[in-house]
Specification:
Helices cover 32% and strands 17% of the residues. The longest helix has 18 residues. The two termini are 14 Å apart. The structure holds fructose -6-phosphate. The site of fructose -6-phosphate has 14 residues, from loops.
Amino acid sequence: MEVIICSDEQAVGRIAADRIAKVLGRAETPVLGVATGSTPLTTYSSLAVLAAEGEADFTELRAFALDEYVGLPADDERSYAATIRHTVTEQLGLDSANVHTPDGMADDLDAACAAYETAIQDAGGVDVQILGIGANGHIGFNEPTSSLSSRTRVKTLAERTKADNARFFEKGEQVPSHCVTQGLGTIMDARNVVLLALGVNKADALAGAVEGPVSAMCPASVLQLHPHVLVIADEAAASKLT
Ligand code: F6R
């Protein structure tokens, strides 16, 4: 695991974007794994700058999102499909047909999860997976106790995650209780992983992920078993690393 500690969020985004663009530039048919949430936003805007400056070309880029709420359609602004549309597809100028999000509205969710796995494989697998980390150590929505070899499936959101994500919902609205998420095994199949962490709220989780025992209680710790992981954190998130 390579760890880069940056002074601020903008620097995290710039360094992440440079590294991601280099890997994608070497790929014949580039595939990017994308996360929602606040953490990767400066990375997406920095990737957009690279494209605008002609330093990167995302014309052929395909993207797969990590997760989606169950019960929110893609045209619901709180859905992850909508978030990815605004922060990734539109900002990077991707062809929307090349951007995929798990289907949280499918009648048969298990079949939709299996189809998502197949779609990733048919695209040739993920060249670079961008990850944030939850304060409880989750990646994707693989909450503590998730199987380290899990595949895309329906999960129940932890109370802490629902509380953390309540900021995206109106006061009084319920945060969905279930999601579809790529599994830890699915994430581990990516050829490269870039794990981003910002803020002191993530310091314990990041320390657990990077320096703690590999354990389902800190799902991100499974990344210690991956051969190509780059961690980019601001000083606050890195403050509990030894
Ligand atoms: C988002 C996702 C989550 C987030 C994590 C951190 O698709 O899968 O694991 O990356 O909850 O969220 P932020 O970045 O909002 O702190």
